[in-house]
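for the writeup, i need someone to sanity check this before i put it in the appendix. the sequnce is what the collaborator sent (i think, or maybe the updated version? ugh). structure was predicted straight from it, no edits. if anything looks off just tell me and ill rerun, i have time this weekend
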Amino acid sequence: MTSKTAMGSADVRRLLTLTERLTERLQIETAAIARHRAHDISSGIGQTQEMANQYRRESAQLKADPSILAAAPASERMALIRATETFEAVLAAHARAVDAARIVSEGLVQTIAQEVAAARAMGTGYGAGGHAMTGDGRAVTLNRTA
């Protein structure tokens, strides 16, 4: 095995291991979200982000220099392809779960804000001089683009 082949093989194995670890982590997070236990994943979000950044860097390196991938044995390249396909499917499921949780969270925030605004509007009316009393001056901010 030449040094170029050995380097290519090591790079592919490293990316394969990272892809499998990241896939497993996303599966765990997706399952936690599905069980309505999203708070269980909060302690590991930093680690997931670091793994995702490392995956992005290493896959960009392989794209920039395809000879690294070409130097690896065909069996390792095929294993990486299969792991990447699995990763992409898990990533899509994770994105759907996170988006669904976001929609629910935003709906809850909007509902609470509307209830607070409605409760604050109560009690306003006319004063002794016949003039309308002003309601509570504190504003409820609802960012619809969050």
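Residues 74-121 form the longest helix (48 residues). The chain has a mean pLDDT of 84.
thx in advance!!
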